[in-house]
Structures are given as structure tokens and as C-alpha cells.
Amino acid sequence: VHVIEHQANSRRGDQVPEPPEFADFVQRRSNAMLRAAWLLTGGDWALAEDLVQTALGEVWRHWDRVAVMDAPDAYAHKVMVNTFLRWRGRRWTGEVASAELPHNVIDTGGFRRVDTREVLRRALRELTARQRAVIMLRYFEDRTEAQTASIMGCSVGTVKSQAAKALARLRHIPGLADVLTGGTTA
Amino acid sequence: MTGTSGTNGMSEQEQRLAELLKRAVPEPPYQLSAEEITMRLVDRSRRSWMVPALAAAAVMIIGASIGAVAATRPDSAAPKAPVAAQGTLPAQAPSPQPISPGCHDAAAPSPSPSLRVVGGMVTVPAVTGLRLARAEQVVQQAGLLAAVVVAPAHGAPAGTVLSERPAEGTRAPRYTPVLLTVAAQAGRAQPTTPTATPSPAATPVPSPTGAAVPSAAPVPSPTCSASATPVPSASPIEVPSVAPTPEPSASPVGVPSVAPTPVPSASPVGAPTPVPTRAAGVTVPNVVGMQEAQAQSVLQLAGFNVLVFPNAPEPSGRPKGTVFKQSPAAGTLLARGSTVTIYG
């Protein structure tokens, strides 16, 4: 116990008194990061939280360096995306094979938003992890292809091809097809 | 894709997708705090060295006891004891007196065979009326463990020991928990169920005492302890050098110091129903709201390692020095020797 306490003490010495800016940063960014992580994880809040916490933990460990960056936000997202892509092999990625999909969810009146969300969630799970990452960065966060490529550590060409594949796949999801092709205005 | 030229130029479809995403991605159901993140990191780095450390300690102890067993009796059953429990022993057992390991009792009724450490008999010191911190010290110096229960003060100064059990002068096996009833602070609402859990901390010697005490009577019945272990209390106990004449009647706790069974140690004393326990587990007691030191000793006595974070980033407005969070939560069933983290 004494050993443990000692360790805890020494650790506390250099880590726990977190810089106030980090707390600010978390408060400012965690919402956006959680939403992005929701997309990445295919709509799994638990996994999303885990992901964001892990990413922010990394940020915290290097906070001295991150705090002076021009774009700490981008760095945090980069860490998050890369952590997520690393997780692919290790974790269950949440992809569920499902035979039936809702047919016409666009016409469900007041429940439209929830249904769209559910369709989106299922659709995301049809995508690969990389495709989800591209979709998130490119269309949810509106980053350019170049930025997306730099965050993911791949070429612009890869971003393009992944985005195209993802879109092609999404077009074949019944609930999304209409929305994407403009058949029905959502 | 069409129209994905250079910067943000998007095709119509892409724009629709972008719009859809922004609309459909829900708001998170909770907020993250910086505190959670930093705590989690510390937790993780702790785990990284805890496992090897525990394993190493366990290997050493098992090795030593196998040697001792071989020396004392040719007992074929090599103890594959609760590793976690053993691992914590060196850290916690304050033993001024030589411990003779190796009384491994094969006939023990435990579901899993367990190592035993025999420390002899000691006398329960008088601590009634002392401040808690001092009383704990005295009890520990006597070779016993201090368990704490908070009770309404009834006029006594807060923090003083109102009574002890077993009574002073009683002969008890080393590492027997002595239950100290401490006067609560006036005005502070005390739960009717006491908070402490007596049980030898890291001793691989979970006594039936733990079971006997909470089971109801203020005076633990000897029969209970007798039935709990078929081992006669005398046998595994070496006559202590320190000890005066051994009393045959033994302590109210009256149990061989070396009960092999992992025992329900985490039941609130005096609670109407003892917390049900499983063979290998101990229920984590609630220590939120206690002073750090007290929480620590309660947890240790329940058989856990304790990782303390004083001055942790705190929710504002709580009293300084009290535990505001524990992990895992109270009621969780954990292996003896697991680590409970408290944030004060």
C-alpha cells in the first residue's frame, strides 16, 4: 500500500494538477468530438465515449506540446481518427449484418429525424472503418480532401476513392437513396 | 466522385450527405470532463505495473510457502492459493514478529486450498477513549488489525473510540480485526448501517471472524467460529514469544488465525443482514464521505489495496479531505487484494 501510495503521490505531482486550459479544451471540444466519434463508431455512444476519452488522454499526455499548436483541435481529431483506425483490428467495430432495412422511412412524419438517424446508423455500419473516417472528416466536419488526407495519413487519391466507395455504398441503402439522389427532399 | 475537385468542392450528392450527417448525428447524451480523462490515464498506468508486480509477489510467496510446506510436512497438495490475496501480504502485514508460513492445512474446508500464515496470539490492547488515529496505531502495533465502525456519539467527543471488540486483554490470533466503534461527528448524519468492514486486510487469513461478527450478536459466538473451521484453534498457532499465558477460553473472536476460506469480510457490522459473499470475493464497502485515512483503513481491512488520490480535482463544495468518489463502487464483488481507488 505504501508503495502504491507513493507512486500515486509522485504521479500526482506531475500529472493530476492539469493545466486549466486542458479543462477548457475538453469542455469546448468534447461535444464535437463525441458527435464525430458517434459517426466513426457507427452510432455507438459507449464506444464513442471510449474513443474520445482515449484521444483526449493522448492529448493530455502531450499537452505542453499541443497547447502551443496552431490547431490543437485538428490535432485532437487526428489522434482520435488514428486511434479509431488502430482499433479496427482489435475491437469489434460494430458492424452488424442485417437483412432487413426499413423501406421508406422518409414518410414517417414526426418520427422522421429519429428514423433518419437510425437509417444512418445502420448505413454507417455497412461502411468500413476507413470509409467512415473519410465520411466523417470530409462531410461532417467539412474538411478538404487535403486536410482529410493529412489527418488520416494517406494520399488525397485514397481519400477520393474511399469517399466515392462510401457514397456508392450509401446510395444503395434504401432509406438513404432518396435523400442522396434528391428524389425526396428530406 | 464527380465534382470533388481540390478543396471543398462537392457534388450535389456529397452536399446532401453532408447536410444529412449534420442533421442526423445526435447530441451526445453526456459531457466529458477533464477529470475523467486524467483519472482514467492514471488508472491505466497503474494497471500496467500492478499486474506484473502482483504476479511477482505471488510467485515469491508461493515459492516460499511451498518450501516451508515441504519442510514441515510432506503434503503433496501444492497450494495454488488466491494469488491476489497473497500478493498483497508483504505490503500490509506489519509483522514485528517472525511469521512462520507453511502451515498449509490440507483438511481445510475451503473451496480452494489456501496458504496460511501463522503469527501466534497477541493481547488486545486497551484503546477505548483514544482518538481513532491513535487507537488504530496501537492496535496495529499490537499485531492486530483495526476495523472501524462509526456510531452515534451520545455525547462523547467525535472521533474517539467508544468501544472495542474483542475486549481489551483478550488473547486473539495475530491479524484478528479489532472492531473499534468510533463516535460520529455531531451533526453529521450517520447512516444506520456502519461503514466499516472488519477483516484482515491482506492477510491470507481471512477469519471466520469476519463472518461471525456481522452475523448479528455484538458478541460473536464461539460456536460460529468453531463450526466455520474444523481446525482447532491451537494447532496452527505457534506459541508466540511475545505472548503471555495463552488463555484457553480464547478470544471472543476465538478463531484460529488461519482460516483458509476466503471469507465474507465485507459485511457491514451490525447490519441486519450480512452481505452475501462468494468464496473468492469481497464486497467493496462504501467509503464515500469518509475521511481519507478512515476510508483507507476500512478498505484495507476489507482486504483491498488502496490507491489514494488526495486533492484530486474535486467537485466544488464538498468537505476537504473526504472521499468523494471510489472506484469500483460499493457493493462490487472483487477478489481480495484488488485495488480500490479513492479520490479525496
Helix/strand structural class of chain B: alpha+beta
Count of helix runs of chain B: 8
The overall average pLDDT of chain B, rounded, is 62
- Overall number of strands of chain A: 0
- Tell me, briefly, the overall form of chain A: globular
Strand content bin of chain B: 5-15%
Question: How helical, in percent, are the residues of chain A?
Answer: over 70%
Biggest protein-protein contact in the assembly: A-B, 57 and 52 residues
Q: What value does the Rg of chain B take, in angstroms? A: 25 Å
| Unreliable stretches of chain A | 1-16, 102-110
- What is the CA–CA distance across the termini of chain A? 61 Å
Beta content of chain A? under 5%
Radius of gyration of chain A: 19 Å
Q: What oligomeric state do the depicted chains represent? A: heterodimer
Distance from first to last alpha carbon of chain B:
56 Å
Largest pleated sheet of chain A: none
Summarize the biggest pleated sheet of chain B: 3 strands, mixed
Helix and strand run of chain B:
HHHHEEEHEEEEHHEHEEEE
Tell me how many strands of chain B there are.
Answer: 12
